[in-house]
């Protein structure tokens, strides 16, 4: 062991591993529980998800996992929080704001038309907004005035994971816990 590295093996944790397979999907899920804490590691065709909780309030991580909702689980396990920018909806919002601002008289007709045409003709992705800041300073200022949002949506891969794999995993854990409880009561 390297004396300069204070990291050392604390203990080896038991794990429960599950392999789920369907016609066109699969997932390998490993969970661990210890001292009212736990972790999950998922490798699947819907992506990979990993998280650790240092305080779940349960001796068994399964009891904690079955209570989670999409937003919390993704916040803990996915680098993009399970969300992505919905460029179509973001552009619709901006175009609507241009029209409303023009109707209110806070934008000249020619300027509104230029903004509208620029947005309609631009590639609808994150790069579009970087190019605006470089080339269309008036439009950039306008977007700042409307507190322009990026409209988010669930990442299809994450949503698929949640609706297909997570649903079956939760059902499996509930059934296991029920059976273990019955066995303990017998």
List the helices and strands and how they pair.
Layout (H helix, E strand, L loop, with lengths): L14 E7 L4 E9 L2 E8 L2 E7 L7 H5 L4 H8 L5 E3 L1 H17 L5 H13 L4 H10 L1 H9 L6 E3 L1 H30 L1
Antiparallel strand pairs: 1-2, 2-3, 3-4, 5-6
Structural class designation:
alpha+beta
- Average pLDDT confidence is 86
Order of helices and strands: EEEEHHEHHHHEH
Low-confidence stretches: none
Strand content: 15-25%
Number of domains: 2
Distance between the termini: 48 Å
Largest beta-sheet details: 4 strands, antiparallel
What's the gyration radius in Å?
A: 24 Å
Spatially, the strands of the biggest sheet line up as 1-2-3-4
Q: Would you write up a description of this structure?
A:
- This protein is an alpha+beta fold.
- It folds into 2 domains: 15-77 and 155-177, no CATH class; 87-150, no CATH class.
- The chain is 49% helix and 20% strand.
- The chain has 7 helices and 6 strands, in the order E-E-E-E-H-H-E-H-H-H-H-E-H.
- The chain has helices at 61-65, 70-77, 87-103, 109-121, 126-135, 137-145, 156-185, and strands at 15-21, 26-34, 37-44, 47-53, 83-85, 152-154.
- The strands form 2 sheets. It has a 4-stranded antiparallel beta sheet, covered by helices on one side. Strands 5-6 form a two-stranded antiparallel ribbon.
- Strand 1 (15-21) and strand 2 form a beta hairpin.
- Helix 3 runs antiparallel to helix 4 (109-121).
- The longest helix has 30 residues, at 156-185.
- The radius of gyration is 24 Å and the shape is elongated.
- 18% of the residues are buried.
């Amino acid at each position: 062991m390297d004396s300069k590295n204070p990291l050392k093996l604390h203990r080896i944790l038991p794990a429960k591993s599950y392999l789920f397979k369907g016609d066109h999907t699969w997932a390998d899920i490993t969970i661990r529980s210890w001292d009212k804490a736990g972790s999950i590691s998922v490798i699947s065709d819907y992506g990979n998800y990993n998280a650790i909780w240092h305080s779940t309030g349960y001796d068994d991580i399964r009891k904690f996992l079955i209570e989670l909702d999409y937003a919390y689980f993704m916040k803990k396990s996915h680098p993009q929080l399970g969300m992505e920018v919905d460029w179509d909806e973001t552009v619709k919002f901006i175009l609507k704001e241009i029209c409303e601002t023009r109707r209110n008289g806070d934008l000249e007709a020619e300027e509104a038309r230029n903004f509208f045409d620029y947005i309609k003709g631009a590639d609808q992705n994150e790069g579009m907004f970087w190019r605006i800041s470089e080339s269309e300073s008036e439009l950039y200022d306008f977007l700042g005035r409307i507190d322009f949002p990026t409209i988010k949506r669930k990442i299809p891969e994450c949503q698929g994971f949640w609706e297909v794999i997570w649903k079956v995993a939760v059902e499996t854990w509930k059934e296991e816990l029920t059976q273990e409880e019955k066995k303990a009561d017998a």
